[in-house]
Predict the 3D structure of the following.
Amino acid sequence: MDDNKKNNNLEEISGILNQMLDIENKEETEDERNILPMIPLRGLGLLPKMVLHFDVGREKSVKALESAMISNQHIFLTSQKDEDVEEPDIDDYYSVGVIARIKQMLKLQGDTIRILVEGISRARITELVSEEPYLKCAVEEMAETVPDSESPEFLALKRNVENNFEKYAELTRRVNGDTIGSVKEIGSPSVFADVLASHLNIKLEEKQELLETVDVQERLEKISSILVREIEILKIEQDISAKVKSQVNQNQKEYYLREQMKAIQGELGMDEDLESEQAEWLRQLNELKLEEKTHQKIEKEIKRFGKMQPMSAESTVARTYIETILSLPWNKSSDSEPDLKRAEEVLEEDHFGLEKVKERILEYIAVMKLTDSLKGPILCLVGPPGVGKTSIARSIARSLNREFFRMSLGGVRDEAEIRGHRRTYIGAIPGRVIAGIRDAGTNNPVFLFDEVDKIGADYKGDPASALLEVLDPEQNRDYTDHYLEVPFDLSKVMFITTANTTDTIPRPLLDRMEVIQISGYTEEEKLAIADRYLIPKKVSEHGLTEDDISITDDAVRSLVNYYTRESGVRNLEREISNLCRKTARKKVSGESGRITVTSENITDFLGKKKYHYDIIEGKTEIGVTTGMAWTVVGGDTLFIEAAVLPGTGKLVLTGQLGDVMQESAKAAQSYIRSVADELGIEEDFYKNRDIHIHIPEGATPKDGPSAGVTMCTAMVSALTQIPARKDISMTGEITLTGKVLPVGGIKEKVLAAHRAGIRKILLPAENASDIDDIHEDVRNEIEFVLISNAREAFEQVLVK
């Protein structure tokens, strides 16, 4: 009990001591703030909460500043009544000022010091304590009369002041929007009034009057009156400025400037050249007879060019722009009346075969002749490399007697390649579409977009999207290039595109085009093309004649079968060039006589054979079947190998097979399990046997469902140990019930099998109509068997 009393007494004593220390510290602080160093300001006024920077140079002011920095950085600032007084006494400055805190000091050249201060509160001088070595005075803070901030009178006054301050800021343009917003958010009426007053451009006397007004509502009323007055003054100033400007005669000004320009250009010897060039441009513009808006814009650019300095960079940009505009064939067209007979003759002369393609092109030209319009779908020629897509487009231009322009889209990733660059960029040029029209020289050329399936996209834009407007007949009448900035009519241009596949063409772009499939050539067609076109062309290009070299038909067949593997004739043309080069070398070396290339001596010219197509007819092998595949370069044959090994029922797939192909193999395995008993296969083979399916050329990715029936047949052969015929090729998608579904690319696949020496092919029954598309020579040499179920394939391929 006694211990508790002692503890309570100690706590009471400790509390009393702390209170005494707080009172003492408070008194010391008050003493420090009551007597402060003073600096009279010349031509400046400070308000509470206002931040101000000024230079201090007078000796007393510098010493007062040093004293303030030593103590608590507080200083008393008041304004001089007359800023010209160098050594002011008590009557030369106002008794009401501001207690401020020194925030920053910066020593300038000489004895001058630049300081940054922030006003804390209003204060009045009660006594001038000393004048040496610096001014020191006793001050007392002035109590303010603060109104009720929620009273209707004050709210109305504040809103009125805010509205007038916004008008003032808009007229004077010295106060930004952020400042207006921050002022509105101030909650304290006193601080709101002082901050508002600090942004007003008013006389020092008026600012001092606001400082001395301690009644906040009265201070706001004075600020409101000042704002109204300043707004009226600013409006009058604007009216006067507008009237002065309107009094200047624009025509006289232009006349004066033009005369000066003529004089300068005359001294430089450029006056006649510029004037004559400008006149020539205006003459060319009038001859073009453009639409009114386009004419006015170009005319404005020409006149603007006349006012520029000839040696300036802007003048060069304007000159390039005007010359580009005037060089475009706005109304110049080729005299091309669609002639169906001539078009047919040209197509037959330039291309062998391709009957369906020629027929579709002639139909297109016939419609053009009847409608006298090109409005309609854009032709898209799709086929493997080397089949003549680009040359067909060139032949179309020749048959129509039109100019031809080819633009390759392979690797194009910048939208500006199509639409052009805006003139704000250095080195800006029009897009390749407009540049192609300009180079063609007419507004109705045949324009070929080559390799449209290889167009790309990145951070610079999507060129395919830019092509949408170009290829859309409903939009390209007013096509606007970024560089030209005026519409150009592309509706008369015949656009043709080429691609190897439609899979990579964006859907919206493909929707605007009519696809014409161009399949690969047969061996007979390649032979005819080589005799009629390639051999004469290459012999002439290499400086030879028919007396120097002769290539027999058997030699051409050897080139087709053993030195090239393609749907087109590009590599065939390359190998013929190789033969011509070797002949040319022998001729230059002094060998005389005609060189004849045959199938027997072709290896002497080209070396060993690169490809081997021949399959031994009737050869069989367990677990190996022959399938057919479609690729972007045409068709191809492939062997599918299946092996059954002891294991745990795994299905191993190798040869870079895609997801779809792997699923086909799994579906085939499931079908075999469902009919294992009927096929004489152990019902539990999937438990203790692993099946490994491999497709050679493992470095080449493969995918698609068309090898389903082929893989199924190979697995059955391996499981039953029944040999399969490799001279029979097959294709078709398989289902879990063993049905064989139709697939695509039949013509290319059959041509590839024919090249490989296969003479019997199994096709899905629903692909029967595709057989008619195959060339008659190939069709007559192959036995086609239509199957609808995998069992039918087993019966044809498995040798019992």
Q: What stands out?
A: The first strand starts at residue 35 and ends at 41.
